[in-house]
Design goal:
The protein is rod-shaped, with a radius of gyration of 45 Å. It contains twelve helices and seven strands. Strand 6 and strand 7 form a beta hairpin. Strands 1, 2, 3, 4, 5, 6 and 7 form a seven-stranded mixed sheet that branches. 67% of the residues lie in helices and 11% in strands.
Length: 424
């Protein structure tokens, strides 16, 4: 609206200047006064518009131009104004339309009244000449119809524009609300995902606890043995060696508990560049704790020289979930193998997790990565372990596939984006 008013004022000011220049070398004083008054009205309205007072600028422009037009029609009549009437009256109607429907029709009514006054003056000047009276009536009819038609078109156009603006504003509000709802939904989904990941970590911590307890029994036995050895000996050297052994065993116990606590802590994912071989090799003690002596455990990193962009805690979670699934598939023992390879060096890391368990039917294999799908009895499984693992792999830009058949074990293939290790 402000841009439209600005252009209107500039055009009218230019028209008034040209009218003054083309009026001849010696225009009448009233012509000069009206032209200068029209330009001053435009300049005053431009100043108000510069101060961002659109309504005041439009109102001032309409009132001043109506007053100037009243002087012109009252002095010269209607007939002398017919030639430039459109250029004089249309800007007033446009500015009135910017003020609203009521202002538009009040301006149109004022202009029609001025035309009637001008027609009366024309008819009065030739009252005894019927042809002049008839010409004045015809001019009034044509000019009045033109003003009313222009007012009607502007009224309908502005009403349509306001309706479209109202619809656009309402749709904008609806879109903003939908956007906010979508953002809240995405945040809620992300929170749910983090909670599922944390719940699975806690579930795996429970599985690890038995292995940790087994390790602690060995460490406590070592501590008790060193303590007993130191108590029975009077040799300072042997006593010092016993204390050193106690300290070493206690330090190993602290490392085990710290590892377990770090794994169970709920944190936001922090992907980082990891040396694939070194990182997975460091997980071997934790993975071994899931299996008993009846399971042959093998880890082959092949010393692959590549890096992956992954959260180390989430990588542990993925491999622990696959290992836990393998352990449950081999209740009477078997073999578990985790192997790494880089078919295309520096491009993709292949992680193969294979067990010799009871395997899965084709229907179970197709659905094993679905959330909440489980073949375990009620209360013995959530159906989230493999689903969360697959989700984490896909979130890291990788993919996971499953090979299995009844009685032939299961093999999970993980493919993760990789890049080569820098040359030493």
């Amino acid at each position: 609206m402000a841009a439209m008013m600005l252009r209107l004022l500039l055009l009218v000011a230019g028209y008034q200047l040209l009218a003054l220049l083309w009026s001849g070398p010696s225009p009448g004083p009233l012509v000069r006064v009206l032209a200068v008054g029209g330009m001053l009205a435009c300049l005053a309205s431009l100043e108000l518009l510069r101060r961002q007072r659109l309504q005041a600028a439009a109102l001032l422009f309409v009132l001043l131009n109506l007053l100037l037009t009243s002087v012109a029609y009252g002095y010269w009549g209607l007939r002398s104004q017919m030639q430039g009437q459109l250029l004089q009256l249309l800007p007033v109607l446009v500015a009135g339309a910017l003020l609203g429907r009521r202002a538009l029709w009040l301006a149109a009514g004022w202009l029609c009244a001025l035309m009637a006054l001008g027609a009366w003056l024309d008819a009065a000047a030739g009252f005894y000449f019927p042809a002049r009276v008839e010409l004045a009536v015809r001019d009034l009819a044509l000019a009045g119809f033109g003003v009313l038609l222009a007012a009607f078109v502007l009224d309908q156009s502005m009403a349509s524009l306001r309706e479209n603006l109202r619809i656009a504003r309402r749709r904008g509000i609806d879109l903003a609300r939908k956007r906010d709802e979508l953002q809240l939904e995405m945040q809620e989904k992300e929170r749910s995902r983090e909670q599922l990941v944390h719940a699975l970590k806690i579930e795996n911590v429970g599985r690890l606890a038995s292995g940790v307890a087994h390790d602690f029994n060995h460490l406590l036995a070592l501590i008790m043995g060193y303590a007993g050895k130191g108590r029975r000996s009077d040799d300072p050297a042997e006593l010092k060696a016993a204390l050193s052994g106690v300290e070493s065993a206690a330090r190993r116990a602290g490392a085990v508990t710290r590892r377990l606590l770090d794994f169970s802590r709920q944190e936001v994912a922090r992907p980082q560049l990891l040396d694939a071989a070194a990182t997975i090799a460091a997980m071997e003690p934790m993975l071994r704790q899931l299996f008993d002596a009846r399971v042959a455990f093998a880890l082959d990193t092949a010393q692959v020289r590549c890096r992956i962009h992954f959260d180390p805690a989430q990588l542990e979670l993925v491999l622990l979930s696959l290992a836990a699934n393998a352990q449950q598939a081999m209740p009477e023992g078997g073999s578990f193998r985790l192997a790494l390879s880089c078919p295309a060096p520096g491009d993709e890391l292949h992680v193969e997790v294979r067990d010799s368990g009871h395997g899965m039917s084709e229907d179970v294999r197709r659905r094993c990565l679905e959330p909440f799908f489980t073949t375990k009895p009620s209360g013995q499984g959530t159906g989230l372990g493999l689903a969360v693992a697959a989700n984490l792999v896909e979130a890291g830009g990788g993919r996971i596939t499953v090979e299995s058949a009844p009685g032939q074990g299961t093999c999970f293939h993980l493919w993760l984006p990789a890049r080569p290790l820098p040359l030493a």
